[in-house]
Design goal:
By secondary structure, the chain is of the alpha/beta class. Helices cover 26% and strands 28% of the residues. Helix 1 packs across helix 9, helix 4 crosses helix 9 and helix 5 packs across helix 6. The protein is globular. The chain starts with a helix and ends with a helix.
Amino acid sequence: MHKDRVTECLKFIDNSVSCYHAVANMEKRLVKEGFTELKEKKDWKLNKGCGYYVKRNDSSIVAFRLPEKEVKGFHIVASHSDSPSFKLKTNAEIAVEDHYLRLNTEPYGGMIYSTWFDRSLSVAGRVIFSAKDGKLKSAVVNVDEDLLVIPSVAIHMNREANKGIEFNPQTDLLPLMGGITAKGVLRKKLAELTGVQEEEILGSDLYLYVREKGKLAGAEKELILSPRLDDLQCVYASTEALLTGTPKEYAAVCAVFHNEEVGSLTRQGAASTFLKDTLERVAESLGKSRSEYLQLVADSFLISADNAHALHPNHPEKSDATNRPVLNGGIVIKHHGGQKYTTDGHSEAVMKILCREVQVPYQDYHNRSDIAGGSTLGNLSSAQVAVQSVDIGLPQLAMHSAVETAGSRDVEYLVKVLQTFYQK
């Protein structure tokens, strides 16, 4: 089963070349399974036993399924749709000595710069245009061709290249689009993809993406090599669990946020009111008072699912002395004394019970005490909706590389655990 699951996961990631595509692909799955879209600007009328979803900014989505019985609380899984990349600036074209054409970009998130060199790249995201009725509309676009490359400087011109180099994103990392005759080509392509005139395009959110497809690797195909594993692995797994697990007493909620890689401080980020607004409106639609809503929240639980660091085969010294997750070793429960991860003793125990019920292995992760770690969705989400929370992830190598490495068996592990969580 795990081979079928990982194949479907890689297909989802391959098609999700931007956060907008990830949400659009998730929406297609939901609609196919009978979920109904809700609009934040309109009233909601909900029926027990049915599935619904609401989007914000086309890059974040909260989907939920109500039980047939009276709702006792919410079982929530949170993940994120964005990955580190380069974002196109406005007026992006830069001519070089009247011969080359580059695109002006800026870093989005904390990427490993060196991994983006000499790869086939393209552009995806969304464009905003003026429709014939005078309203602004958006379209998700993907220039689905080998369009760009960030070329390395030859070793002959930089003899220190293998001794370490600090890359300047304004000079070293701008992608080459071709000769000077390529001027205006990108905007023309975007207009064609959108089906509008070039002058009707008034705004955009466009990112570079790696053209390499995800694949299985390793002696026994136990490895996954793919772009955007952080965090589309968890997006895929939580969506699958929502669609295949039937809630009994708790509303099953799958929340996918944008902008995690840049701090989540946007109206569609985990620190926004998006999840809180959605849960409040669900309770209101079910006829709950404010006091009853707070009782639902008090009996709720959040799994923050964002990938975790695995023991590195070349640098085991980078890992904690006693907590060393490995690929295909199962769910990683993340801990931090300063609460960058929300896991505490009780939520840790809850997660381990869930894993044991379906015979899924689990591992623990702590940062080395002398190495600063990253943060994730759990503490930001629970600041808005005060639920007990645990931070987990799937183990991976080369986090924030243009192409990352993970274990092929771990996807199935996460789907099984989340199915059980939603059904409890």
